[in-house]
Specification:
Blueprint lengths: L2 H6 L11 E5 L2 H14 L4 E5 L9 H12 L9 E4 L8 H9 L6 H4 L3 E3 L5 H17 L7 E5 L2 H5 L1 H5 L4 E6 L1 H6 L19 H16 L3 E4 L8 H15 L3 E4 L2 H11 L3 H16 L5 E3 L2 E3 L1 H16 L6 H7 L7
Parallel strand pairs: 1-2, 1-8, 2-3, 3-4, 4-5, 5-6, 6-7, 7-8
Antiparallel strand pairs: 9-10
Helix pairs in contact: 3-4, 4-6, 11-12, 13-14
């Protein structure tokens, strides 16, 4: 049997996405990010930004440009998503009609996901999904994955219900809008390190969103690091976001941030080796309990180590032969 069949036995398996979500707003930056993705491989996602990327009055032209790039040969891995305008914006429907519902071409089928910003409630999200699915289904795409920005009081309140929606695969924390929505009650220092990891209201918001994601098997994505000149800062933020808060993905807003983020969320070689040793012994024992180095392991720890190997593979890490033999087995047919 495939390890996933043994370890999960019909239960929900953890959803995995590349650890870095790189945002690009202008055509120049979009093309640059696509070149970087072709160089590094599909180990990070790209999100083309219509909400903040489009100049005023040029929203339709911008959306048309985004659609053409997604449907181009430069989208080698089909791991590019798009952030559209919010559901209450007059440009929301235009974005969806132009990108998701594009006639001719394969934009809808090649689109990795759609990011919905500024939701104020579960009702906002369900309304946006109704409109999105109307265009996606018309273009031959069903169950197009959706990422939701949690950046308002209402979205945070409804985070558990939003995460439970089957079409939602990721919640992203929007720290700048969240802090500014408190109108000075949270200082600006909480938008960056160390305040973003210590201010009680921000910590509470992050933990609530992350808990909602993990309860429903979804991906929690950490907010941006606005310091684009010091890679050590983004690396530290990514490490703390993962190790202390349970995030498994993080935004990038500069090409130099991509590698530090991916590295921070990639399991260390020592973790991969430990996972390999535990899982190969477990497989030899037909997945029954084992003792290794004086410690008991059973299927609970096997599931953890299986995820370690899956994350390492997703990040492009070279796996030991024994680990590669496990994770590269063909998945069972549904």
């Amino acid at each position: 049997m495939h390890p996933s069949e043994v370890l999960f036995q019909g239960k929900r398996q953890p959803l995995l996405l590349p650890a870095c979500d790189h945002y690009a707003g202008s055509e120049k930056l979009m093309r640059k990010s696509m070149t970087l993705q072709q160089e590094l491989g599909p180990h990070f996602d790209i999100t083309f930004d219509c909400e903040d990327g489009a100049a005023s009055g040029q929203e339709l032209v911008h959306a048309e440009m985004v659609a053409s790039l997604i449907d181009s040969i430069h989208n080698r891995y089909n791991r590019i998503g798009v952030r559209v305008h919010d559901v209450h914006s007059p440009h929301f429907v235009t974005d969806l009609a132009t990108i998701v519902g594009a006639a001719g071409g394969q934009v809808a089928t090649r689109l990795a996901y759609v990011v919905l910003p500024k939701a104020n409630s579960l009702q906002d999200v369900t309304l946006a999904l109704e409109v999105l699915n109307r265009y996606a289904n018309g273009a031959g795409r069903t169950h197009l994955p959706v990422h939701i920005l949690i950046e308002t009081h209402g979205a945070l309140r409804d985070a558990w219900d939003i995460a439970a929606l089957p079409q939602v695969e990721c919640l992203s924390f929007g720290i700048m809008d969240f802090v500014s929505s408190h109108y000075g009650a949270i200082p600006a220092s909480a938008m960056r390190t160390p305040g973003q990891f210590t201010h009680p209201l921000v910590v509470r918001a992050k933990l609530e969103m992350v808990a909602a994601c993990h309860a429903h098997g979804k991906i929690p994505s950490h907010n941006v690091t606005t310091d684009i000149k010091d890679s050590a800062v983004v690396a530290n933020d990514a490490q703390r976001a993962g190790a202390e808060f349970g995030f498994t993905r993080m935004w990038s807003i500069h090409p130099d941030q991509v590698k530090p983020i991916v590295k921070a969320f990639t399991p260390r070689l020592s973790e991969v080796n430990e996972a390999t040793n535990v899982l190969t012994d477990a497989a030899s024992a037909n997945w029954g309990p084992i003792a290794q180095n004086g410690r008991l392991h059973d299927r609970a720890s096997y599931r953890y180590y299986w995820t370690v190997l899956q994350r390492a593979k997703l990040a492009g890490l070279s796996l030991p032969d024994a680990a590669a033999a496990l994770v590269n087995q063909p998945e069972p047919l549904p």
